[in-house]
Amino acid sequence: MPRLTQAATPPAPEATAPAGGALERHTPPRVDLLFCGDSLAQGMFLSLQPAMRRRETLRIINGTLHATGVTRGDEYDWTAVSRDLVERHRPHLVVFWIGANDFRPMVLRSRRARYPFGTAAFAELYGQRVAEMAGNAVQGGARAVWLGLPNMRESQFAGAARQLNAIQQAAAEGAGAVFLPTWDATSDAQGRYMPAVALERSVQAMRAEDGVHFTHFGYRRIASLLFDAAGQRFPELAPCLGRVGEA
To answer: What is the DSSP string of 73-110?
Structure first.
């Protein structure tokens, strides 16, 4: 994880507030894209980095850390970290992908309390933290996309991921972020976990052996959905983002 200090602050994303008060955005000469999250976001960043670093119109920034989550702010405070990363890098777009380690109790050391997964208190507190994270990006002037959790091989993980997706979507959208589901893209026609994709001349493994993470091909497949959706929702970023298939 990079240190959260920097000698100089880069310029803010290009935006002006006209007399009516609505934010008017212009296409920047380069898009700075910040990835935040656990090993899911980290895997996507690492899969994209070799090709994306050759693009002059795009800079991807690694703000990820594996084995972290929203639930354990006492171990790694994503609310504070996301705020610091946005302040440091002033990105045009922030992508969050997190939750693979969040099927455990929500811990609040200030209250000396633990709230089990699946309880109403867990959902409320988890949603608050998601909203704070997404809000840090939006309030910092960035566009924000929150990627939903994928389908998972083990049924208990898949069921838990569905619950987290519902909480994440409501909270992220409420904070002004775009929620982008990955469930259908990781499920077959019957809604079952899909480990591989049949292409015209081959079958490509999409998921890692643990049934949670992705292969290089899988990460790039989800990244393709991300870039296409971001370009459609944020047209001022589309010329610099391009498409993953062009990398």
So the answer is: TTT--HHHHHHHHHHHH--SEEEEE--TT-SS-EEETT
